[in-house]
Write a structure and sequence with these properties.
Elements: E1 6-8, E2 20-26, H1 29-39, H2 44-47, H3 49-53, H4 64-77, E3 85-93, E4 102-113, E5 118-126, E6 132-141, E7 148-150, H5 162-170, E8 179-184, H6 189-200, E9 204-210, H7 212-221, E10 230-233, H8 237-250, E11 255-258, H9 263-271, E12 283-289, E13 297-300, H10 310-326, E14 333-337, H11 348-361, E15 369-374, H12 376-380, H13 382-387, E16 400-402, H14 406-418, E17 423-429, E18 435-436, H15 444-461
Parallel strand pairs: 8-9, 8-11, 9-10, 11-18, 13-16, 14-15, 14-16
Antiparallel strand pairs: 1-7, 2-4, 3-6, 4-5, 5-6, 12-13, 12-17
Helix pairs in contact: 6-15, 8-9
Length: about 475
Amino acid sequence: MTETEFIENVTFQEITLGQSARLLRTLTLEDIQAFAAVSGDTNPSHLDDEFAQDSPLQGVVAHGMWGGALISGLLGNQFPGAGTVYLDQMLQFVKPVRVGDTLVVTATATKLVAALTRVEFDCTVVNQRGEVVLRGVAGVRAPTEKRRTAKLAAPRIQLFDPEARFKDLLSKGDGLEPVRCAVVHPCDRESLSGALDSARYGLITPVLIGPELRIRHVAEENELDLRGIELINVAHSHEAAERAAALAASGDVEVLMKGSLHTDELILAVLKQPALRTGRRMSHVFRFDVPLYPKPLLITDAALNIHPTLKEKVDIIQNAIDFARILGVAVPKVAILSAVETVNPDIPSTLDAAALCKMADRGQIKGGILDGPLAFDNAISRSAARIKSIVSAVSGDADILAVPDLESGNMLAKQLEYLAGASGSGLVLGARVPIALTSRADGPMNRVASALLAKLAAHNARSDRPRHS
């Protein structure tokens, strides 16, 4: 260690009246968010710019106690430093602190009580304009033993705001009218409330298809309002799927949404309608907001095709590329995953990956940049790729992860959600209408996000099919 990596405290015996110390700190939005996360103070004046603009302070400001915490940091780390015990603090909040403000925090010793080893400090916090934003008096018990210790790094805080990511995703549908959506057999609370929430956000105009008495019972039991909602009564889930597919084939609805029925029931009903076929393999795409990844990540196929062939993987990847472009990615980067990043005849997925990349070179897959085989680490991490001497335009910057089969994709998707805290939504592509395919475990935001994806895909496809009148 170098000398600068150590800190040394100031004992009570060494402190003199008028002695002072100071620190500098510039406020960032991340500071505000981290303080809100740790303190639990989620006052919208600190976190919601739209709300804060209409408040008396006219904009987002730091929590007042964030400035108090800076004083605590100065006293505890620097002066007196290690071994200091905070006893009391009086604060006066003079002016707001805004993002970008650089603060000078000063603590000056004004009173010494030898019997208690107590020191009182006048504390001020001044911004870059020379304005006092915070002042007060702090009392501490100063250390009596000289200590020289290694300077410790603060624990790392990884900020992730699912609500902000959710709002950003919803904004992609701004200005687009709701699409008529057949909600297939919404006979449990999750699927019914998800459809109604999606309608409330202006994403869909729901057409509920299922046993009417059962749907109304679920609504009544969960205090869900069905007034003004179209409801088509059918006997059971098979009939609901068939009726929904028929409505989609005739152009009466533009989106299908899975309710409380098995996925294969709905997909089979769609496949039975020639008008819904496109000549492409249907496939599922997950969209994830991952806390430690800088942009949304698509994963395909983790829900529909169990062991896709090379030919089927072409359609799966093309579906994902086309959808990524709908989401605003001009040239999506596709990482074709396997267990290793080299072609190995004993691992069939590496052979498929190599073939898919060459097919893209020959124009058989269009609109994206493909690379593979890539192991997961070097698909999402430039440093991992660098260590393995992989030169790739995709590594560390992938927009789409194409998995070898459903098992690996499903495990990857659930690991991201349950271990990495990712927020997910999903869609089935390849038919004439998009299908919002949700899981029973999906929460309200996931279901609404899936409806938003379907809305975007439906608007993109309007030029290719009859519109509902």
